[in-house]
Design brief:
The structure is a single chain. The chain is built from 21 helices and 26 strands. The protein is α/β, with parallel strands linked by helices. The chain has four domains: 197 residues, Response regulator (Rossmann fold), CATH 3.40.50.2300; 187 residues, Rossmann fold; 51 residues, no CATH class; 204 residues, no CATH class. The strands form nine sheets. An eight-stranded mixed beta sheet has the order 5-4-6-7-8-15-16-17. The protein has a three-stranded parallel beta sheet with strand order 1-2-3, with helices on both faces. A three-stranded mixed beta sheet has the order 24-26-25. Helix 6 packs across helix 7, helix 11 crosses helix 12 and helix 17 packs antiparallel against helix 18. The longest helix has 35 residues.
Length: 795
Amino acid sequence: MPQNYQHILTLAFAVQEINENPHILPNLTLGFHIYDSHLNPKLTYRAALQHISPRNRFVPNYRCHIQDNVQAVLEDINSDDSQIVQDLFSIYKIPQLLYGPAPVMMDNTQPPAFYSMVPNETQQYLGILQILLHFNWKWIGFFTMVGVNLEWFVQRMFPAFSQHGICFAFMYSQSDMVGNDYMKGYLKSFSELYEKMMRSTANVIIFKGQARSFMKVRGLILKAQIEYMMPKGKVWIVTVHMDLKTYHERISGDIQIFHGMISVSLHSNEPRGFQEFFKSRKPSSAEGDAFLKDFWSYTFHCALPNSVLGNVHQANCTGDEALKDLPAIEMSITGHSYSIYNAVYAVAYALQAMHSSKVQTDKQGERQKLLNHQPWQLHHFLRCVSFNNSAGDQISFDHNGELIAGLDIINWVTFPNQSFVRVKVGKIHAQAPSQQALQLDEESMEWHPRFNQVRPVSLCSENCNPGYRMTKREGEPFCCYNCSQCPEGTISDHQDMPDCFQCSAGHFPHKDQNYCIPKMISFLSYEEPLGAGFLCVALTLSLITVLVLGIFMKHHSTPIVKANNSKLTYTLLSALLLCFLCALLFIGKPGKIMCLLRQTAFGIIFSIAVSSVLAKTITVIVAFMATKPGSRMRKWVGKRLSVSIVLSCSLIQVGICIIWLVKSPPFPDVDMHSMTEEVVLECNDASPTMFYCVLGYMGLLASVSFLVAFIARKLPDSFNEAKFITFSMLIFCTVWLSFVPAYLSIKGKYMVAVEIFSILASSAGLLGFIFFPKCYIIVLRPELNHREQLIRKNQ
């Protein structure tokens, strides 16, 4: 893979910079050996043993030259081979810096024996989780070529994904292959698996594996597309160690299926001078670079002098070919190369710190010398190393020996000629809060052509809009649900709410049940038509009552006024006037005094009015009976009877009201719940029992008055008011009997309106039926208002 040559150049560039810098390791020269594992466990282990052998001799555990003093090892080893290599170097306490994938630790109780230049698996997947949440991808697939990674993912990361509402359409693990094992059975097995992934409704697939696993997947996908099915676009998300790389043309395959792929990549910054160093590489000026000739021949498809021809038809290389003209070669430093660069500098600064702490003076004190340190002594200084590299990034390790660094988000853009460009579209900051860690430029992202450059959707179910709730589908993952309308009186104000909720006090649901509206403050006010209408009616009836009272007072000496007990008449008219005016206590914003007076004043005044009517009725009966010869009722005729009836009946109501005010007085209150869209300001009666006692006593007086008037209705007309009182009390009783069910069934300010209407209607009934006939005679038929006329009519 030609791209890997950048790793080698980065190593050489970092070592050259350090050796040329007089401030880092003066009088000391760094060297390096490069070993290729060849993806073969045996060769990998032999290469590890070579580190502890003399130069050019395979004699493990011996060291013959100071130049072969291995101080640290930089590793990027296949996970299948990594454990045996790490165990070997751990025996000798040789520091190991991993710029490749760290082995997955199922047990985190033991600290790792290496330093990782790469954020750990957990950090990578949490970064992927933030990307999924940003794009609202809740229905995804997971695919890996290495079984242990799937086991680790299920144990460690699956709960975190589930807690954030993400579930998996599938989780597949394909067993790995050895070499070029493309047997028909294996290909068929993978093709069936690939078809399931492509047919899945999940448009996002997380792929976990190593670089070589990704190569094999590309080859398998190519064959599966050719032999079994047409390709279908998906959004692939890969971890740090997955790269699109150009390798042998025969197995390269079409990379268009990975167009728009997203990877969480190692953070990288361009070190000063690196691109110039890279571009300056020429076969003529790269003495000692054993890799350059092969790299040059392979990438430019030509043959250099003294090299074995790969193809007899290849032309000779001129040596002046330009690397910048190769689309498959990235001139900017990649994340893996940047990790190598930082690893070399970390070792150099640790060595400098170690040597500075171990400088000793000999017995004469004339000169200093460096002790021959052992590699295990370097661990302490590596853990504490902290520096800023030439790109401006701070490099240090945490307590687990992991580099403190963020992740870059890369969007891969592919082209038909098998070339590609990695576009950095964001970053995940290492130590920022999880809600602020993700920084993403979505407008710069490319998507697979299948999505028509529109952000892909990956959901098992469509989002439930506000006003709806999710209802689970039986037997399916929690991401799969139906949307149901919220029950009446509840809302949901976000997408995908698991349940609906009621609005807070003082608010009510919008008709679409997607947000709450503040309730209007409601009370019967003078400004609204209903309140203004009641005010006009009450004042009008009050004026009429005053006019009637004035008429009676003006004609107080006339027979019709005298015959009806003028004092009792004045009392009744005054009570009716107060009845009309007390209706005004029910209009306006309730206050403390108003609430205390409303029902008590109403009860007492009406009791006076009804007891006056009762007294008038009884007076008529007594007066008629007293006219009979030898009747004993003559002694009851007079003012004392009427005064006694009015006072005794009224004082009982006064007593009830006093008990009410002392025991549990009414008070201003706010009713949040009776009306859906209104907050009602009201007077709380505090004791409904006392209110119904007041109302019941008034009803008892009215019933007795009606009964007595009904009995006396056939007395002679000249002395008789009983007929008029009967009609008036019939109206009165009818109004208040209708009031009770209406009052109990209506809420809010309309309860007050019903009571005001009952007060005005019943009072108007008394005023009209009792006094209007008399006013008619007094004002319009004065000739009938004579004693002779009354006596003649009686005879």
